[in-house]
From TrEMBL:
It comes from Aspergillus caelatus. Residues 204-217 have a biased composition (Basic and acidic residues). It comes from the Eukaryota. Residues 69-97, 198-217 are annotated as: Disordered. This is Uncharacterized protein. InterPro entries: YOR389W-like.
Length: 461
């Protein structure tokens, strides 16, 4: 399966801030639901009820960023304040307080989840799948300044092309958000609280200009707590039915051997089949259709092989070539022992048993997720058997490294051994450095991202 590794990672990273920040250029659209009775939050400079379209956060700390007066800043100064429902009131409060609106969902919300860092206003590809596929190049090119147009386009498409079957979309930047259509119908108001964000009070700050240089520590605590999932089954993703640019469109998604996928170089006509399939997905499947949780199966595969593969190639060792080869073979022997019948030493049978430990053998009717996970698991098992039979150390090591490069699992970047007041700092839009991406390290919540912020490029106006 071409691109099975990328589809696997899209499934594994879905609704997880860690993987979606590292595999930030999403190429996939999933059906998703938020159950009835889930609390959502909206920050604004005003207490007025939100109407027609609302930006909803899952965490109050996320919405609090927007619960303060609009200062009518230029988009480049807004950072990640991407206009939670037109944050430009005519008469903002005289002080630095704002309003936090709390809601519960009035019914099960039917949504499209756009994967990756799909709310990141950068020019490195985070908005490609929306602007090129979903909106069919109808929004003018731009970042923060085009967010209202994107939201309106979402709700126009939901009502017309999708015949009212979808209530909005889920996106991610520094936390997950919903662009929700018809909030008056889809939400039940709980409380409107006048609040003052402690991160934006007057007084000296890190940059000496009256505002913190990085994200407030309490926001970082909230968003990084969702590194490995939104939690509480607040979002349910349907993995049996989704649309991805990685599958069956014969597109060059990595032009010039780009490290990340891009769509900007492709003609609109080349992307039309993906648009058509997304519309077909929405019109023929309900987001709440029963489906297999293939992400949980992907977790089993990563948990079994992630640390194992990483440990086969110690970064610092004092073994000679012969001893290192013996070490690798011994470790693989132990791993593969349950699948190898010593009476026959049938490699193909061993690979089949290994490949189907977590994933049944696919059939012609199997879902894309099923076939993808099997293909990746089969690649791992067959590689292990090939290395086990190897005699040349250099070839064995190269084969393992090639497998790890193919898999590109974000688990290999996780930090170890950090304190309670620290988190493993990777680039979280709009902050973070290239060093944070390639070599994440623990940073304190209240002192993070104080160095070079050169990963995402300037915030796209």
């Amino acid at each position: 399966m071409h691109n099975a590794n990328h589809i696997f990672n899209a499934i594994h990273a879905s609704m997880r801030l860690w993987g979606s920040s590292l595999h930030h250029n999403g190429m996939s659209f999933f059906l998703a639901t938020v159950p009835e009775g889930i609390q959502l939050y909206h920050g604004n400079a005003r207490s007025d009820p939100i109407k027609e379209i609302g930006w909803m956060a899952f965490e109050p700390d996320h919405a609090m960023v927007f619960a303060r007066p609009s200062r009518r800043q230029s988009p480049s100064k807004l950072q990640d304040e991407h206009l939670q429902h037109a944050m430009a009131p005519e008469d903002p409060p005289a002080d630095d307080s704002g309003f936090l609106h709390t809601f519960v969902t009035a019914k099960e919300l039917r949504l499209i989840y756009i994967d990756g860092t799909s709310a990141g206003k950068s020019q490195i590809g985070t908005l490609d799948s929306q602007d090129r596929i979903l909106f069919n190049d109808t929004t003018l090119r731009g970042g923060v300044g085009m967010e209202d147009q994107r939201a309106k386009a979402v709700c126009r498409i939901a009502q017309t092309e999708w015949k009212g079957r979808i209530d909005g979309v889920i996106r991610m930047a520094a936390g997950f958000e919903i662009i929700l259509c018809d909030p008056e119908v889809n939400l039940v108001p709980v409380q409107v609280t006048q609040v003052r964000h402690p991160g934006f009070t007057k007084g000296p700050h890190k940059d000496g200009k009256g505002k913190p240089k990085g994200k407030p520590g309490e926001l970082l605590r909230a968003v990084t707590s969702r590194f490995h999932g939104i939690g509480g089954e607040r979002v349910r993703v349907n993995y049996d039915h989704f649309v991805t640019a990685y599958y069956s469109y014969n597109l060059d998604l990595f032009p010039g051997d780009s490290r990340v996928p891009r769509l900007t170089h492709l003609a609109s006509e080349q992307l039309q089949p993906i648009r058509d399939n997304l519309t077909h997905l929405v019109l023929t499947h309900n987001p709440n259709d029963r489906s297999v949780n293939w992400q949980a199966v992907a977790d089993l595969i990563v948990e079994k092989y992630g640390r194992f593969l990483h440990g086969l190639l110690p970064r610092k060792h004092h073994l000679g070539d012969s001893d290192l080869r013996e070490f690798i073979v011994t470790q693989i022997d132990r791993l593969m022992a349950p699948f190898i019948d010593v009476r026959s030493e049938d490699d193909e049978q061993a690979i089949k048993l290994c490949s189907t430990q977590f994933v049944p053998l696919p059939t012609d009717n199997s879902s894309l997720a099923h076939r993808t996970l099997y293909a990746v698991n089969h690649r791992i098992c067959s590689t292990m058997m090939a290395v086990r039979k190897g005699t040349d150390l250099r070839t064995m090591v190269s084969t393992i490294r090639d497998l790890m490069g193919y898999l590109d699992w974000t688990a290999w970047k996780e930090c170890r051994g950090y304190h309670d007041d620290e988190f493993c700092a990777i680039p979280i839009w709009p902050q973070g450095s290239r060093k944070d991406y390639h070599h994440p390290r623990p940073q304190k919540y209240d002192e993070a991202y104080q160095g070079e912020n050169d990963y995402w490029g300037p915030v796209w106006d």
